[in-house]
Every structure is written in structure tokens, then in C-alpha cells.
Amino acid sequence: WKHKLPWGDVTKKDNKLYLLIQDFPANGKLFLPGLKSNILNAEFLTRSDAQKINFTKSDHGYYLDLSQCTPDAIFSVVQITISENPVIDTTLSIAPQNVSNFSVLFAETKNAKLSKEHWMEKFGEHKYSWNISGWTKDSEVKWTINVPEAGYYLVRLNYKADKRVEWKLEDNMGSMLQNKIGTSSVYTKNDLGWMHFAKPATSELTLKILNPDDTNVNLESIEFEKIYLEE
Questions:
Q1: Cα separation of the two ends of the chain
Q2: If we measure between CA atoms, which residue out of 59, 139, 106 comes closest to residue 223?
Q3: What is the percent of the chain with per-residue pLDDT over 70, rounded to a whole number?
């Protein structure tokens, strides 16, 4: 996949994929994005047993039913047997049942600076961050992301800034979100608002700052969390 997935990671051996699940979906419905190969069998592995699980294919990947499985305290493992070497669409994808965070490393940057920042936390802990700075009125950051389910998503931005920032996020299908939100001297996740995706699709999301002359901003990532509305 060339990047971490919202719930964990995947390893491969021969014609088997091993899903290492750190963030177990609350409703037991795990979305595996981008896999084009046919799945022959899927099993939830425990320390002493293998439990067969059901799966369904969608346009953007597979849904795995883990509702009858008990998550491991550290991480859970699903073994998938496929019919061939894996064919994968490596486009970033939201996992609707998990919070999906996407680094600026996987974005296209225009008229701004992508760099790696290092600093030392209390007690000598070393930290670093890839971030985008040097924003102007012509700066843009664009992610291409598969959205497998229509609906409303809460959008968060992880950044630091010396003053409040007015952001504008829009996609190629007509959705738009604009808001002036918080400031912090350390990287903080701020709610930008709800964005509506009318149908499953590949979305090109473009982010801009409308007041770049008023503030210094370092952007680290964008995050999506699906909102499930009560009927």
C-alpha cells in the first residue's frame, strides 16, 4: 500500500496478506482499501485458533466482518488468502469505521514549503514532523483520496499557528468547507467542520489559507471521521 492504513498495516507472504489491526473498528466492520485481487478465504487469527470471517467486495476495496471476533489487547491479526500476487490501488482511502489521518507527505504542494522539523520534548524525548509552511495566497495542498461511502465527515486539521487561521477546503465534486479556527504553539488537531460527500468517489481535495499574511502556519495532516446520523 506504500502507506500506513487508518487501522494499522499489512504484510505479505506468498499469496497471503496479514492485516495487523491496532485500531479495531467499534462496529466490527473493517474496510480494506484498494485490493483488486480476489479473496479466496479470510480468517481471524488468535493465539490458539483461526476463525473464518465473511467479506464483501466494493468498488474501492473489501469489507471484513469482525463483529463476532474479540480484539487482541495489543493488535489483532487477519489472514487473507488471495488468488494471485496482490493487485493494489495505492490511492489514499478513508476507512469509514475508523478515523483516517493523511500526512502532508502524501499531498501535492503548490507555492509552499514541505520540510522536516525536529524538536526535543520534556525529559529528552526527540520528536519530528513533516509539515508545510511558507503559505501565501497562491499556496495549495491537494490530496487525492478514495471515499468509499457517501455521507458527512468531520474534518480535522493538525497544525500549529501563531494566530487564528481561515481555511478553505473544496473538492472536485462541488463540496466546500470554510472556517476560521484555533491557534496553538504546538501541533494540535482542530475541527474544521463537516464535509458532505454525495456519493462514493475518488475526491481531489484542495486546501488553502485565506489569511496567509496574518499568521505563520505549519500544517502536518488532515483527518476524516464519518458522522453516523440517527434516523
A1: 36
A2: 106
A3: 99
pLDDT tens digits for 96-140?
999 999 999 999 999 999 999 887 777 777 878 899 999 999 999
Strands (E) in 88-183, as ranges, are 92-93, 100-103, 108-110, 113-120, 126-133, 140-147, 151-161, 165-171, 176-181
Residue in the structure block whose three cell numbers are 487525492: 144
- Tens of pLDDT, residues 66-93: 999 989 888 899 999 998 888 899 999 9
- CA atoms of 225 and 231, how far apart (whole Å): 19
> Could you give the 3-state DSSP secondary structure of residue 4?
coil
Three cell numbers, residue 166 = 481561515
Count CB atoms within 10 A of the CB of residue 2.
7
How far apart are alpha carbons 135 and 210 in whole angstroms?
10
Q: Across all residues in the chain, what is the average pLDDT?
A: 92
pLDDT reported for residue 29: 93
From the list 228, 224, 226, the residue with the least C-alpha distance to 155 is: 224
State the pairing for strand pair 92-93/140-147. parallel
Radius of gyration of the chain (CA): 19
Q: What pLDDT does residue 203 have? A: 96
DSSP 3-state of 106 = helix
